[in-house]
Amino acid sequence: MLNITPIRQNQFVAGVALALCLLGIRSPVSGQDHVGVQMVRPDGESERYWPRWRGPSGQGIVTDTGYPDTWSATTNILWKTTVPGRGHSSPIIWGNKIFLTTSRNRGRQVSVLSFNRSDGQLLWEVEVPAGEAEYVHSKNSPASATVATDGTRVYASFGSRGMIAVDFNGNLLWHRGLGRIDNYHGPAGSPLLYRDSIIIYQDQNDGAFVTALDTKTGQTRWRTERGASVGWGTPIAITVGDHDELIVSSQRLVQSYDPSTGNELWRCDGMLREVIPTPVVGHGLVFCASGRAGPTLAIRPGGRGDVTDTHLEWKTTRGSPFVPSPIIYGDYLYQVNDMSSIITCLNARTGETVWQERLGRPRREGISASPIIVDGKLFVTNDEGQTFVLRTGPTFELLHTNDIGARTLASPALVDGVWYVRTARELIAIGAS
After folding, report:
1. What domains are defined for the chain?
2. Closest of 315, 309, 307, 359 to residue 338, by C-alpha
């Protein structure tokens, strides 16, 4: 029996759908983006590179082709370079530069690193001003948040150490303290670059907030208090018809804010206590996954106030992830349950399970990296460095398994036919030899 709850199946919705059809307008229940619900994508040259967490699409989707789908510790390896210190942040790329973060001395020293994309040479390192080290979970680190760039500045978040902006030559431009972040596993969510603001939320035991800083100066544009006590997620910005919304999926609630003012637009109940995955968007819906096999919610954005009873299209507990973010491609939503190493393909419009299979040996909390789709193939990497390559679509098909031979918790970056993978100790470029 499918563990799925359809929310809006009544005569009123059917009547609206019929009326819209007669008018030549697609209905929201058809799964089409009739109101233009989509991610706010970076401007200009950002589309050419990998400027943020989950790439230019914000969803782990790679639109160009020519990337190898097989590799090993030696096959299709273009170069390897040692990354000093410890960190789980994913690499980002602009031009010929790679950026990521690291920590040393048990978190007392944290910094931003830049590498040459051609050969992996370390170009520079910028250390964040001194501050208090935080306790972090063994699968977290003091350098877990992925940086973002607009092609001029690189923005990095370090929890209680605040946020910094550096230029491409490694000069510290500004440093902004955000106060003590008291999250029992340590902070981890990545900042979101939205137009000329850098936005982050920090849910914690006391004083949770979401805030937007000016990208040029680091000054606060707005700061909105929140009620959540724990969370490690990353916000997204979406366009809904004629306006933009900032989506924060965290403890108990999914909330939408006006990204220009920080005012709450709507909220939807149904999440669990611990939430890590980044939401994705498709078919006019926002898909938000809750932690530890909790529910996945499909929400129609654009409402006002409490939309739990009016805009929640479907919810299911089948295959929900704890750490990895979901990914949507075509008609299908893919989710990796890292508590049992199971991948589930859902019908994105209805939430019904299309197929569900295990990837490798079952392991609790054994997958941290978020999946990638490129060339119509789905890539899922576990913490042991094994990447499962699957055909996308309504039938499960495992094409092959790659093994890089190193512990891998960060998600990859892909540019110009090359994968850039951060392992526990190295940065590796994978391309067709």
Report:
1. 28-430 (2.130.10.10)
2. 359
Long-range contact pairs involving 210-219 (C-beta distance under 8 Å, separation at least 24):
210/235, 210/246, 210/248, 210/257, 210/262, 211/178, 211/262, 212/259, 212/262, 213/163, 213/176, 215/150, 215/153, 215/155, 215/165, 217/174, 218/163, 218/165, 218/173, 218/174, 218/175, 218/176, 219/176
Give the phi and the psi of residue 104 in degrees, each rounded to 5: -135, 170
Beta bridge pairs of residue 166? 154, 172
Give the up-direction half-sphere exposure of residue 161: CA atoms within 13 A in the CB hemisphere: 28
Distances (CA, A) of 364 to 139, 147, 195, 385: 12, 28, 39, 15
Q: Give the pLDDT confidence of 157-176 residue by residue, as tens digits.
A: 998 899 999 999 999 999 99
Query: What's at 233, amino acid-wise?
Result: G
Question: Three-class SS of residue 419?
Answer: strand
348, 309 Cβ separation under 8 angstroms: no
The pLDDT of residue 199: 98
By mean pLDDT, which of 136-145, 223-232, 412-421 is the weakest? 136-145
- Nearest Cα neighbor of 131 from 180, 84, 202 is 180
Q: Is 68 exposed, middle or buried (0-12, 13-18, 19+ CB in 10 A)?
A: middle
**Quick check: 190 and 53 in contact, CB under 8 A?**
yes
Q: Characterize the bridge pairing of strands 312-316 and 280-282.
A: unpaired
Contacts of 80 (CB under 8 A, 6+ apart): 120, 426, 427, 428, 429
Joined together, the tokens standing for residue 429 give: 């470029």
Per DSSP, helices labelled H in 123-254 are none
Kind of pairing between the strands at 327-329 and 342-347: unpaired
Task: Look up the pTM and report it.
Answer: 0.91
